[in-house]
Design a protein that fits this description.
By secondary structure, the chain is an alpha+beta fold. The model has no long low-confidence stretch (mean pLDDT 85). It is elongated and about 90 Å long. The longest helix is centred in the last third of the chain and has 22 residues. It is 36% helix and 18% strand. Strand 1 and strand 2 form a beta hairpin. The chain has three helices and five strands.
Length: 142
């Protein structure tokens, strides 16, 4: 059983990933119709050995590749060879899991300073007076 290193502390057993080879879509001549070079990587987030916080962060993402059941599906078909597509899909999985390892910063509510509020209101007053002056043009038609 090989381990896929995500971070220095977290590794994933390759038995938690399932692979499916299928024919790639799009142009490619006659070869595309007979060779299964595209790869579907399936990874069940909820049943994996990842830390619980990572699972929650991954499942809360608004990513079209993650199903309601918590299964991540990555389709790789950039390359002509199945092995290169397999490596590409694995690299994309590791990249996605690494983003889940980052704890998001908690936003602290802030209020604008009094000086910033005064500057904003002065700018609004200046703009309003400029518009008011545009409407008060004297009638020059004789």
């Amino acid at each position: 059983m090989a381990l896929i290193r995500i971070t220095p502390r977290v590794a994933l057993p390759d038995s938690e990933i399932s692979w499916e080879a299928l024919r790639a879509q799009g142009a490619g001549g006659q070869n595309v119709n007979k060779v299964s070079s595209a790869i579907h990587l399936r990874f069940d987030i909820k049943a994996s050995s990842l830390p619980e916080t990572w699972k929650v962060r991954l499942c809360e993402r608004r990513d079209h590749r993650i199903s309601r059941e918590g299964v991540l599906i990555i389709k790789a078909q950039r390359h002509r060879s199945q092995e290169q597509n397999r490596e590409d899909a694995l690299a994309r999985l590791v990249e996605l899991l690494q983003t889940a390892s980052v704890v998001p910063k908690v936003r602290k509510a802030t209020r604008p300073t009094r000086g910033a509020q005064e500057r904003r209101l002065a700018g609004k007053a200046r703009h309003a007076s400029l518009k008011r002056l545009r409407g008060d043009r004297p009638d020059t038609s004789d």
